[in-house]
Design goal:
Blueprint lengths: L1 H21 L3 E7 L4 E6 L12 H7 L6 H14 L3 E9 L5 E11 L4 E8 L13 E2 L1 H15 L6 E8 L2 H7 L2 H16 L7 E4 L4 E6 L5 H16 L2 E3 L2 E3 L3 E8 L6 H16 L5 E4 L2 H16 L9 E9 L6 E12 L3 E3 L5 H7 L2 H21 L6 E5 L2 H5 L3 H12 L6 E5 L1 H5 L2 H13 L3 E4 L9 H4 L6 E4 L10 H16 L3 E4 L5 H9 L4 E2 L10 H9 L1
Parallel strand pairs: 6-8, 12-13, 15-17, 17-18, 18-19, 19-20, 20-21, 21-22
Antiparallel strand pairs: 1-2, 1-5, 3-4, 4-5, 7-9, 7-12, 8-9, 10-11, 14-15, 15-16
Helix pairs in contact: 3-4, 11-13
Length: 550
């Protein structure tokens, strides 16, 4: 019975394989590497097996003109090294003249001196169903680039990997229909393709991220000129359905072989350069260089150390007082996480919080900070120290977590902490992502008597009408709005932001007061709480308790 079933399954498999071969989806190919003899059964190329029975014939008749030299060099390298398996991506012209992309995977059999393998038709198509010569899926892109790097390794060929991120992609999705956004991306990709050579490659790795492989360049100026052309094209509005849309780009570049000799490392380097470019504003580009390399390797060290930061007791909570502007009495406290690593040293929050969010460690770190802050705050209350609120910075990812509210309530109950003493400080990112869900979550937290503070009020890009939907009790005005408050223009801007916050009945917390002159000016503007180096830097738990005591 078992043997019969196995026979049926094998028959079914044979039928599936034969159907796939007939449709031109896959093929079987044997390459005898010593004699260069080829044997194949496939419907992809359209050529009869008797016409093509060796490697030179295959390259001459089938391989696309732009790929012939590269593929010959690649097969030669496999002949020299004879690895256990091989993987080659090839651009071909079938007998009827159609362009196709093919992947050949084979396993070596040393007895017969042959690579037995399978051909896969991996042709990417455009949205109208016609073959697209340049755009390909990212897995095929990676395989293709590995082939090119291997073939060019001893050829003194310089290549470049360019990463492009459409930084306002999510905003487009939020403001326009998905089909409009995708039409914009197609038009944008077409513009890029118009600047590339046939031997270059492009792939869309995610909704907003593309990578381009420039297969051969002579001078770095060629890459810079290409980037400038792309940015100039981005500067032109893309018309879609009577709407003209601008894209915002960040570009990072890594070079082969100067920066790295494998595609995985090049992608990491180009992506890191891209992120650094993004921090400078939209439509910036950066090349991976020595300075960025130092920052990258520090970033990697932090990334590797992050999973054990809580377990190894490397984190600490410091506390910065918030003062009454007239009495100079402490009325609030902000809890700030700090990380001291035994080898790296002190790591500022802006160097690891976003990383913790992207790698999924923010929940563990966030929970630890909440528990440490709540436990400490209750100790201070029990010791008779007075303050109206203690603020904890909360990541958007924590707010979105289904268990967040339950965990917070459990901590308050465990340490008998009054909920109305806790202020949860959120960013504009919390407002902009998953708006409906976050509004509902924050309303529940307000119903539990927690206070909600919005950080960096007036400096971001949120729509103030959408802010009204959130149960915010206070706003924090960023230090950048205080730095030059002695100047008339900056004074008028800060006055307007404070007036807006007052009109919305928010409590106002002003950050970054560092001089007596700044203090005297902002006092008159009517802020409820002020914090900054003029009064105190962030303090250890013990130093903060001492300040509360006096």
């Amino acid at each position: 019975m078992i043997d019969h079933q196995t026979e049926i399954d094998q028959n079914q498999m044979d039928r599936i394989i034969n159907q796939a071969i007939e449709k031109g989806e896959i093929g079987l190919l044997n390459w005898y590497y010593n004699s260069e003899k080829l044997e194949f059964v496939e419907g992809i190329t359209g050529y009869a097996p008797e016409l093509i029975n060796n490697l030179p014939d295959f390259v001459y008749h089938v391989i696309d003109e732009q790929d012939k030299d590269t593929i010959l060099r690649l097969f030669k390298r496999y002949q020299e090294r004879l690895p256990k398996s091989l993987e080659i991506t090839m651009r071909i012209r079938s007998k009827d003249g159609k362009f196709k992309q093919v992947l050949f995977r084979g396993e070596i059999d040393s007895e017969t001196q042959c690579y037995f393998g399978v051909l896969y038709n991996v042709t990417t198509t455009t949205y109208d169903g016609t073959p697209m010569k340049q755009m390909m899926g990212y897995r095929i892109f990676l395989a293709r680039v590995r082939n090119l790097m291997s073939a060019n390794q001893n050829n003194n060929t310089k290549s470049a990997l360019i990463g492009l991120s459409v930084t306002n992609y999510k905003s487009l999705i939020n403001n326009y229909r998905t089909n409009i956004t995708e039409e914009v991306m197609r038009s944008f990709t077409d513009r890029i393709l118009s600047h590339l050579k046939p031997v270059d490659e492009i792939s869309r790795f995610s909704d907003e991220l593309l990578f381009i492989w420039i297969n051969n360049y002579s001078e770095i100026k060629e890459i810079k000129d290409l980037i400038n052309c792309i940015l100039e094209d981005v500067g032109r509005e893309i018309p879609v359905e009577n709407v003209e849309i601008n894209l915002h780009l960040s570009i990072g570049v890594a070079l082969f072989p100067d920066d790295a000799q494998d595609i995985d490392t090049l992608i990491k380097y180009a992506d890191y350069a891209l992120v650094q470019a993004q921090s400078r504003g939209f439509n910036h580009s950066l090349f991976f260089d020595k300075e960025i390399s130092k920052a990258y390797h520090l970033y990697r060290s932090i990334e590797l150390a992050l999973p054990n930061a809580v377990k190894n007791n490397e984190l600490a909570v410091h506390y910065q007082p918030q003062m009454d502007p007239w009495t100079n009495q402490i009325i609030g406290i902000e809890a700030l996480v700090r990380w001291s690593h035994p080898e790296i040293g002190n790591i500022p929050p802006n160097s690891f919080i976003e990383l913790a969010e992207s790698k999924g460690y923010i929940h563990e770190i966030g929970y630890w900070v909440m528990e440490e802050t709540i436990k400490t705050a209750k100790e201070w209350l029990d010791d008779g120290y007075e303050f109206s609120t203690i603020s904890i910075n909360i990541s958007p990812l924590q707010i979105e977590q289904a268990t967040f509210r339950e965990e917070l309530l459990d901590l308050c109950e465990r340490y008998q902490m009054p909920k109305d003493k806790l202020e949860l400080e959120i960013t504009e990112g919390t407002l902009l992502e998953q708006v409906d869900q976050n509004v509902d979550n924050l309303k529940k937290l307000r119903a539990d008597h927690f206070k909600i503070a919005l950080d960096d009020f007036g400096t971001g890009y949120s729509n103030f009408s959408s802010v009204l939907n959130f149960p915010i009790t206070s706003v924090k005005i960023d230090k950048s709005m205080v730095d030059n408050v002695t100047e008339d223009r900056d004074f008028m801007v800060l006055s307007g932001v404070i007036a807006l916050a007052k009109s919305l009945n928010y409590q106002i917390v002003l950050e970054g007061v560092e001089t007596e002159e700044q203090l005297n000016i902002v006092r008159e503007l009517g802020c409820d709480r002020i914090q900054g180096f003029y009064f105190s830097r962030a303090l250890t738990k013990e130093a903060m308790a001492d300040m509360l005591h006096h």
